[in-house]
Design a protein that fits this description.
Largest sheet: 12 strands, antiparallel
Number of strands: 14
Structural class: mainly beta
Length: 318
Amino acid sequence: MRSIEVITNPPAKYDAEGGAILNIQTSTNPSIGYKGSLNATYAIGVVPKYLVGTSQYYKNNWLNFFASYNLSTKRDYKEDEGMIEFYEPNGSVNSLWLNNFKRNTRTLSHSFNSILDFTLSEKSELSLSANIQLTPKADSDISGLTEIFDAQNQPEFSYTTNSFLANNQDNILLDATFTTSLGENGASLIAAANYLSYEDGQVQDLRSDFFSSEGELDSQNLFKTDSEQNTQIYTGKIDLATPWGSSSLESGLKFSGIRSQSGMDFFDNNSSAPVFVGEFSDDFNYDENIYAAYASLSKDWETWSIKGGLRGEYTDVA
């Protein structure tokens, strides 16, 4: 990393709704050649966890390449015991609640990162990057037991809750940036595009059994939920910087869009066949497009400088 600059008052180049900006300048590894590594990790507490991965690096006069991949498979186990006492206004005990909670989670995930930097000419460069996180499996078996006792420490009733939760999640981030110098007067052009995709699916089956003080089954409650979220964010921009007489002129265009879809279906499983319950289900869609253009002019003197700019944005929400 070469430098970090904190811009507390961002100029017109940056989004109108933004706050302070961190301008991070990275440096390039000058070494030429190939490097690679393999790694593996094993850890165990109550249950084991595994991680295997590799990273590869290659650089020559016109290409800078880096890629890494990791495979993680693990189990997580959690058990909690709790006690809650409820009191009357006079300080005497009203009831005592004892609960026991257990969760066993099995997870499988893949992560991939890659950077490709191309030197197209003495004036032009192209950079491509990808950051991908795939979790096709994150399943949990969850159980809980709650026992309620009266002020004389006699059992009143109890209930158990057992559920199976299946979850999968994908995160994909892609980036492309093209940089070039224009002419001989120091002008530059930067074109960039980004794409972000987030998907999350979750299915849960839950059953609760309620028992009397004698331990007999009083009632049951069974339901299932099936939820999904899909969000896509994409941006594209062009920035042009050029000298203008003794001043510097910056201008640019930007487009960004968001597509978000989410919903949950609720099913009552107390009968022989699942029954869809619309009042407990929901569906939400959100679309947003932002169009922006800006221009700014700056001039430096020996002891002071001045910069002014104008930015316009139009937002379309559906």
